[in-house]
Design brief:
Blueprint lengths: L2 H9 L3 E6 L9 H9 L3 E6 L9 H8 L21 E7 L1 H8 L6 H12 L3 E5 L3 H4 L2 H12 L3 E2 L23 H18 L1
Parallel strand pairs: 1-2, 1-3, 3-4, 4-5
């Protein structure tokens, strides 16, 4: 296990799952991992099956000290990740937002997200979408639905508005990693005060 992973686990029992979907910012998700580690989190990265293509899985495993998971484990196998205390979904695709709000668990990432609502975990989602996808009524309704269930969705003016179709790569430097980690800290405080 890398020294960074061992150090982080010794520092805190708080576990943050970072779930990255199939979008260009996933190539830079190590920034979010580092921000979480600086705040004392033991960070575990999961990706959607398609999101895995965008991630440097080996580098993320080394940085976190945990394997990067994207598939359900086999029945009877032990879980290789500690249970989450909080979750950030960044970048969150329209596909993931819509399936999550519908309660669909056809991937490990979605299963964890659906369960997180039932467990009352603090969850922050940062959608990354083009204008055409974000304009679909199901997306708007599902963002509102997730918010009504206590999910913090960072979207719109002041965060990262939808971009023109085909221009996602040009938005990478604008992705709000810092806002995401700040929001999970705030969501965790609210959750603790309710508990």
């Amino acid at each position: 296990m890398p020294a960074v992973g061992r150090y982080r686990k010794a520092m805190s029992a708080r576990v943050l799952y970072v779930i990255a979907c199939a979008a260009p910012p996933t190539s830079d998700v190590a920034r979010l991992v580092s921000l979480g580690q600086q705040r004392g989190w033991d960070v575990c990265v999961l990706t959607t099956p398609s999101g895995r293509r965008f991630a440097d899985v080996a580098a993320l495993a080394e940085l976190t000290g945990h394997p990067v998971r994207s598939e359900y484990k086999n029945p009877g196998e032990p879980d290789v990740l500690p249970p989450a205390d909080a979750i950030i979904v960044a970048p969150a695709t329209v596909n993931t937002i819509n399936k999550w709000a519908a309660g669909i668990c056809d991937t490990l990432a979605l299963g964890i997200l659906v369960e997180a609502i039932g467990r009352g975990l603090p969850v922050v989602a940062v959608p990354f979408s083009n204008r055409a996808h974000a304009a679909h009524p199901a997306f708007t309704e599902n963002v509102a639905r997730l918010r009504s269930w206590g999910v913090t969705v960072l979207s719109g003016p002041g965060v990262l508005p939808p971009h023109d179709p085909g221009s996602g790569d040009s938005q990478l430097r604008l992705f709000p990693w810092q806002q995401a980690i700040d929001a999970i800290a705030a969501a965790g405080e609210i959750s603790a005060s309710r508990g």
